[in-house]
Amino acid sequence: MSQEHYTSTLTQQAGTYLPPLHGKASAWVCGNEEAEAIYMQALEKPEEFWEGRASQLLHWFKRWDKVLEADEERHKYRWFTGGKLNASFNCIDRHILIGRRNKAALIWQGEREMDVRCYTYQMLYTEVCRVAHALSSLRVRKGDRVALYMPMIPELVIAMLACARIGAIHTAIFSGYAEGGVRSRIQGAKAKIVITADAAVRAGKFKPLKANLDPILEKCPSVAHVVVVNHAELFDVKMMPNRDIWWHDLIEDFTLDVDFPCERMNSTDPLFLLHTSGSTGKPTGVLHSTGGYLTYAAHTTQWIFDMHDDDVHWCTADIGWITGHTYGVYGPLALGATVLMFEGVPTWPKPDRYWRIVEKFRVNILYTAPTVIRSLMRMGEAWAERYDLGTLRILGSVGEPISPEVWQWFYKNIGNSELPIVDTWWQTETGGAMIAPLPYATKLKPGSATKPLPGIDAAIMRDDSTPDLDGSADRRSGHLVIRKPWPGIMLGVYNDEEKYQSYFSRFGCYESGDGAEVDEDGYYWILGRIDDSINVSGHRLSTAEIEAVLVSCPEIAEAAVVPMPHALKGEAIYAYVVTRDEVAWSDTLRKKLLDTVRRDIGALASPEYIQFAEALPKTHSGKVIRRLLRKIAGGSSLEELGELTTVAHPEVIKPIIYGHQNILLGQHETASMEAEAAADGRG
Ligand code: WT7
After folding, report:
1. How far apart are the two ends of the chain, measured CA to CA in Å?
2. What count of Cα atoms within 13 Å lies in the side-chain half-sphere of residue 350?
3. Which of 173, 247, 232 is nearest to 199 (CA)?
4. d(CA 560, CA 531)
5. Which residue has the higher pLDDT, 21 or 288?
6. What is the pLDDT of residues 57-78, one digit of tens each?
7. Facing residues of 536 across strands?
8. Which of 288, 403, 425, 430 to mutate to test the pocket of ligand 1 (most atoms within 8 A of CB)?
9. Which of 11, 46, 2, 75 shows the shortest CA–CA distance to 468?
10. Closest approach atom of ligand 1 to CA 544
11. 193 phi and psi, to 5 degrees?
């Protein structure tokens, strides 16, 4: 077997599921025949295809002169040049003009059950105009950066759309970030204004935001004002005179003369700046355009979720991530849908919170992440059983590979074995989903994101930069790249041209950094980040594949595998596993896991060491940070791990290091020892 190929067994798992077509004639894309015709059309005449979508889905103040201006040498792709539009107009005003004035645009469920707010399109318009006026009174102008360090509250959506109305560039900073992450983003963006809240409410506790921000701002000279939402009603918020203003005081003057005319933005003007979640290292500041991005957001939202007028759409991702931007705000609102927004977490006060919300608001589309599904799976299906989930029509997954086992759990327990699951592969840089099924057209295979969407030219490259071409083999594996531009592609990396160019330097087209395998049906199986892959005796093994096998054992809730240096093999495999609740850690279980990997993949893939852990280090968006686990497996101490600002619960790291040391000493840890260490780490 050659080195550039992954050895993968993922594709051999489980069966296939046909799309549920009965009664679905109203679907945007219905049945395979219609889908095939669309794929062909997009392939043959891509510009006509994208231009068609841009004019069907958005309102343009002025039509574009050119669909695409491509500078192939510098890899700059500018969509709908000469076109004028405004994202806020498209997400609000337009719907009011066509009779959706009294339709719910945004339903908000607070952390506390009785905290519910609902904004119709008309109400959203009023609030957005008031905030646009208010920001404008603070001298926010087109092109200025406004940082949003806010919890999941309606004011966050309102602030985004107010910025878009003015033409200011919003940059959302996840509210769970501590100091370093926040400071570097505000400084990097040279933000003029920061909008925040007194505190976020998470799992029954207040997490101060404004107080956290104050010391950070001492080193952010660009910030002229801080606008503070009084969300948690904390009484001891310190406000700095002339700098800090309460949100409610600021907008108070703007009630009567509400209309705030939309800035006529160029299609190629930036809409927002957003940093990647940092699972692979330093976060990258990605800049997205107005026309191309919004077209791609609306287009993918409509087709992937088959979104219709009376749907209640719930994207569970925090708006601090691209998923929240595209599928929690811009995509669905551009289509005039109803968005559900939830402030809390899935397990608080009990692990039934998501299902309560689905039942309470009759949710139709539920888009979530494997990390959430795994955590709910770990606690057992009984939590979902007592709720009526009958309104759900489509389930979605994003962020990490969803292993066939987890897919099946979601399908059976939440989807009642009848709903399509749209597993959507994409990245902050791509603006919207790239590889995903069309729910009423694409046959599903658990664990595969299926096929590139119409107009998306994905391919697999070998290490030597030659394409692993269609037809050259039944199965192809290697680097996942995109060969042709699409409207959602990032405008650039903020103030870092070199980083932008690095996406194109290796293959001459967009390099995702992920590994993938394509099966004989042209289905894509995402194998994880290429940087994370493991090379055992010259064979490249994918993290996703080995982890999927470990998680297929009913005792295991989560797994992460990383390479560790090995004198003979080059690299050996080190596995961290988290057991489901009430499963004891034992050598018998270790042996079972080893046997399973040996049986399902082969001896080559069987881990040298298996370490039980209480929890794995993850980004705030829920991705396992294998980079840290690799360092620990290689013997690094806590001090040698470096930057930890992107780690959501850094206290999980210490017990993992402790467990690793025991493994090397040949002492087999017990759950209680780890628990002690965990308590240590938190103390
Ligand atoms: C990376 C991008 C896209 C929004 C969320 C994260 C991984 C994402 C999938 C999926 C397998 C996935 C990839 C990608 N990823 N979706 N459906 N199957 N892997 O955005 O922080 O920019 O991360 O997330 O590795 O490169 P992001």
Report:
1. 49
2. 9
3. 232
4. 14
5. 288
6. 999 999 999 999 999 999 999 9
7. 539, 570
8. 425
9. 2
10. 11
11. -130, 145
Distance between CA atoms of residues 345 and 336, nearest Å: 26
pLDDT value at residue 498: 95
Residues 6+ apart with CB under 8 A from 643: 180, 282
User: How many CA within 13 A on the CB side of residue 353?
Assistant: 21
Q: What's the pLDDT score for residue 180?
A: 73
Phi-psi region of 75 (alpha: psi -120 to 50; beta: other; left: phi over 0): left
Give 401-430 pLDDT, tens digit per residue.
999 999 999 999 999 999 999 999 999 999
pLDDT of residue 14: 62
Backbone angles phi, psi at 677, to 5 degrees: -60, -40
Tally of CA atoms within 13 A in the half-sphere of 63 that contains its CB: 6
For residue 243, give the 3-state DSSP assignment. coil
Residue length, the chain?
A: 683
CB of 277 sitting under 6 A from ligand 1: yes
Assigned token pair, 571:
């690299």
Q: Residues of the chain with pLDDT > 70: what percent? A: 94
Report whether residue 427 contacts ligand 1, using a CB cutoff of 6 Å.
yes
> Residue type for 424, please?
T
**What one-character-per-residue DSSP string does 321-367 give?**
SHHHHIIIIIHHHHTT-EEEEE-S-TTSSSTTHHHHHHHHHT--EEE
313 and 307 Cβ atoms separated by less than 8 Å: yes
Ligand 1 in contact with 399 (CB < 6 A)?
yes
- d(CA 468, CA 478) in angstroms, rounded, equals 8
Within the chain, what is the greatest distance between any pair of CA atoms? 76
Residue nearest to atom 5 of ligand 1 (CA): 399
Alpha-carbon 191 to chain mean position = 24
**Which among 408, 352, 354 has a CA at the least distance from the CA of 554?**
408
Average pLDDT, the chain: 92
pLDDT in tens, 215-271: 999 999 999 999 999 999 887 899 999 999 999 999 998 876 689 999 999 999 999
